[in-house]
Write a structure and sequence with these properties.
alpha/beta
């Protein structure tokens, strides 16, 4: 069977679906991953040549490079973020819809990331095949905590927690309704939708044809550290889609491998011995990662990293992400959230007991960061908790469970005729 996975965004929005695609391909299916051109090397490398790549036009992530856009994102106003995204995507939005439909041609199953839900759903409806949303976090409505886009902490009133999801779904639908319905009518021959994907999921539940929703994460990133009691049975927490060892250790650059596994290079042996005498574990390097967030001032960020290394007397591996320099649960973390869902995720690390109080990126300084790093390194209880959480997370079935749920999905479209 041909299975098409449609997703969009940064590496973190694509790599998990490559892992799911590999699992599905290993079970004998032809898997196509449709996303932006920028992600083709990642799909081909991590996909080991076993996944087909299909180009989706445009690149919504480019908007985060503009200074004004970064300021808006950092302030966290969801309405302004949606308006900014709509303005940025307007030039290629119609072609994205056409590309999505083309990618799904001949599919027997369509899976979708969060930024591609409505287009992929419409393509699946046209084909009459199952459609399964595959999310990377706890995004389904609940009265126990609000949408991450509204708050990283639960509201006092449970009805307000649930209402936050309705508001976000409504706001997103307002941005895309006219464009989506015009495309559905002119290109797909489908009737207009009254509401977006969230409403379709609700209608399917009412009609007795529940559409499964896969959340490829563990309960450790759910507020309260457990699945909400009011999530329906079609919500599946499958665990994280960890990457298998697709590259041999020998393929890692020799200097980096030696630096991590054996400590410093030969010229740094004296410094390494001094560090080991001072703290035993001092030779273990720090991981300084900036993820997918481009820094407004890459040079200043590099200087900050140098200061951290100097003040902590620890070696470090600097992973620059998209900062134009050339979350790991098994060890404690110092989260430095920038925007969007990052404050929510940082709060989850703290709640799980594997991180210190977040240091917002806009407040970052060498002194503040070093203070938190030293506190984390000295906290043996946090280190033990992080190791325990790592073992718990590894116990989830991950992509195997996600694949099971996806392949068991049935087409809901006949039962939903005239109800959307």
């Amino acid at each position: 069977m041909k299975i098409v996975i449609v997703t969009s965004g940064s590496r973190g929005d694509v790599q998990p679906y490559v892992m799911l695609g590999l699992e599905l391909q290993q079970r004998g299916h032809e898997v196509v991953l449709a996303t932006e051109q920028r992600m083709e090397p990642l799909v081909k490398q991590l996909g080991q040549g076993r996944l087909r790549f299909f180009k989706i036009s445009g690149d919504p992530t480019l908007m985060i490079y503009g200074k004004k856009n970064q300021e808006l994102l950092a302030k966290g106003s969801i309405m302004k973020v949606l308006q900014m995204a709509e303005a940025h995507n307007k030039g290629f939005a119609e072609q994205v819809l056409a590309d999505t439909a083309a990618a799904c041609e001949g599919a027997g199953l369509v899976l979708s990331g969060m930024l591609s839900l409505t287009a992929s759903m419409s393509a699946a409806q046209k084909l009459g095949v199952p459609w399964v949303p595959v999310c990377l976090g706890p995004v389904m409505p609940t009265s126990e905590f609000p949408s991450w886009a509204i708050s990283s902490s639960p509201f006092r009133w449970k009805w307000l927690n649930r209402a936050s999801y309705s508001f976000i779904f409504w706001a997103i639908w307002q941005q895309e309704a006219a464009r989506i319905n015009a495309w559905r009518s002119s290109s797909l021959g489908l009737p207009p939708l009254k509401q977006g994907p969230a409403s379709v999921l609700a209608s399917a539940h009412t009609a007795g044809v529940d559409i499964p929703v896969i959340m490829m994460c563990s309960s450790h990133v759910v507020p309260g550290l457990k699945a909400p009691a009011d999530w329906p049975a079609n919500c599946h927490l499958t665990g994280f889609p960890f990457s298998p060892a697709v590259a041999a250790e020998a393929d890692v650059e020799l200097r980096l491998r030696e630096f991590v596994l054996r400590g410093a290079s030969a010229g740094d042996e004296q410094q390494q011995q001094q560090q080991q005498q001072q703290g035993g574990e001092a030779s273990a390097p720090l991981y300084l990662g900036f993820g997918s967030m481009p820094a407004p001032d890459p040079k200043a960020l590099l200087e900050l990293a140098v200061q951290v290394v100097t003040l902590t007397q620890r070696r470090a591996v600097l992973v620059a992400g998209w900062s134009e320099l050339e979350s790991i649960l098994s060890i404690p973390s110092v989260p430095c959230p920038v925007m969007l869902d990052q404050p929510f995720q940082a709060a989850r690390l703290v709640e799980a007991g594997v991180a210190c109080k977040p240091l917002p990126f806009r407040q970052i300084s060498a002194e503040a960061l070093v203070g938190r790093i030293k506190a984390v390194l000295a906290d043996s209880a946090m280190a033990a908790r992080a190791a325990a959480v790592a073992r718990e997370v590894a116990g989830y079935p991950g992509v195997a469970a996600a694949a099971d749920v996806a392949l068991a999905a049935a087409s809901p479209w006949q039962a939903l005729q005239g109800k959307l």
